[in-house]
């Protein structure tokens, strides 16, 4: 019941943040209405980092404790992270065309490393399907999830390390937190969208975790049923001979 | 396409996608757990 309440709160927050971003915030002096795309774009990118970070830490948790609940958290983070990465890329493309003049540029390090991040975790999700054994799957996935997480800081700092189209952090770097490179109303709306998306993220993580646990329980039930069936048919086959 | 068109396209996919994923997840959970368990 608490999770359901959280879901409704998250829904209300996302609706309110979207309404504020679309109808309350004034157009930017230089970017016009296109700057409204920044709010869900940036929030999606931050949640993608968080999701994949959770996947990597949960992978370490599995390798250390051998508790399948860590693996359930890991797969939840990966699937939801893939979704938010796709949202961040889509929002960036929709903003890039009117502001940069292009949807995409492969030479840009932020764009290319983000595309790589998406590919890595889509691969992670596909890799999980290679085996039905929950423990073997969790171990292999943990290693892939940890290795893939190396790309997270590369994506984040790519705008500082290399030149490209993508601008540097507006509030993400330590020296910009108290002196952001945008007016307060834009920063407030961005933080509102980030809070709303984070609530939705928590709700989705809980639900996806529950689904992962239920799937493992069903796999276990099927395995036990097969074992019982094999044992039941074993002696019968002996008698028949 | 105008700026408004890009804004609409961005929000439609992101907010719509978030909603669709939530509904899909809820349905997957409901099909595997049953309606009573999912209500928690």
Low-pLDDT sequence parts of chain A: none
Q: Could you tell me the strand content of chain B as a percent range?
A: under 5%
What is the overall shape of chain B?
rod-shaped
Count of DSSP H/I helices of chain B: 2
Largest sheet of chain A: none
Question: What separation lies between the terminal Cα atoms of chain A?
Answer: 56 Å
In total, the number of domains of chain B comes to 1
What portion of residues of chain A belong to β-strands?
under 5%
Helix-strand category of chain B? mainly alpha
Average pLDDT taken over every residue of chain A: 91
What does the radius of gyration of chain A come to?
22 Å
Number of helices of chain A: 7
What would you say about this model in short?
The complex is a heterodimer of chains A (241) and B (40). Chain A is mainly alpha-helical and 241 residues long.
Description:
Chain A has 241 residues and is mainly alpha-helical. Chain A has one domain (37-168, 177-240). Helix content of chain A is 77%, strand content 0%. Chain A has helices spanning 2-24, 38-65, 68-99, 109-127, 134-148, 151-161, 184-240. The mean pLDDT of chain A is 91. Chain B is mainly α and 40 residues long. Chain B has one domain (3-38). Chain B contains two helices and no strands. Chain B has helices at 3-33, 35-38. Chain B is rod-shaped and about 45 Å long. The A-B interface holds A 1-4, 7, 14, 18, 22, 32-34, 36-37, 40-41, 44, 83, 86-87, 90-91, 94-95, 97-98, 200, 203-204, 207-208, 210-211, 214-215, 218 and B 1, 3-4, 6-7, 9-11, 13-15, 17-18, 21-22, 25-26, 28-29, 32-33, 37, 39-40.
